[in-house]
Amino acid sequence: MLKALSTFHKIMIKKNSTENFTLSDPIQFLALGFGSGLAPRAPGTFGTLAAIPIYLLMLPLSSLSFAMVVIVMSIAGIYICQKAADAAGVHDHGAIVWDEIVGFLITMFMVPFSWLTVVVGFALFRFFDIFKPWPISFIDKKVHGGLGIMLDDILAGLIALACMHLIF
């Protein structure tokens, strides 16, 4: 029993350790949400907060351009997140928040801008990302690697987006 607890403790330390990450590596810099994922508590929330300035910069884009940027970020995210997970030695390390950035941008697609929509979008995306209702939980458990890291947040973003369009 003690050996099992010791092994579990070592896994949890490794899962929460950020020692294998470096912001000087451009791939890890992106995966870590420009450093926001290194927050000691709630890195996913800080990663989503890092998405807000990106969203604000993307506001002048047409819907087509916005969608194209998000698609490119999503595809690149598969590679970015996989490389960062490999560096950490942990699948979907909490500090990897590129997926949260993309998920929030999906949430805000074609939603009229106001600070209220930003706050509601933030809350909805975080809700679906944290609680992972079905089918998000299914994807999170069954799809691995960079694709799995990205896909559950893309799905959370799509569900939050549907809610946003129903609300606004």
Helix content range: over 70%
Molecular shape: globular
Range of strand content: under 5%
How far apart lie the N and C ends? 53 Å
When the domains are counted, the total is: 1
Biggest sheet record: none
- Secondary structure class reads mainly alpha
> Which stretches are low in confidence, meaning pLDDT under 50 for 5 or more residues running?
4-14
Element-by-element helix/strand order: HHHHHHHH
Summarize model confidence as the mean pLDDT: 91
Tally of DSSP helical segments: 8
DSSP strand count: 0
* Rg, Cα atoms, Å: 16 Å
Write the layout of secondary structure elements.
Layout: H1 2-16, H2 26-31, H3 43-58, H4 63-88, H5 98-107, H6 115-131, H7 136-142, H8 145-167
Helix pairs in contact: 3-5, 4-5, 4-8, 5-6, 5-8, 6-8, 7-8
Summarize the structure in words.
Helix content is 71%, strand content 0%. With 168 residues, it is mostly helical. The protein has one domain. Helix 3 (43-58) packs across helix 5 (98-107) and helix 4 (63-88) packs antiparallel against helix 8. Residues 4-14 have low confidence and may be disordered.
Short account of what is shown:
This protein is 71% helix and 0% strand. By secondary structure, the protein is mainly alpha-helical.
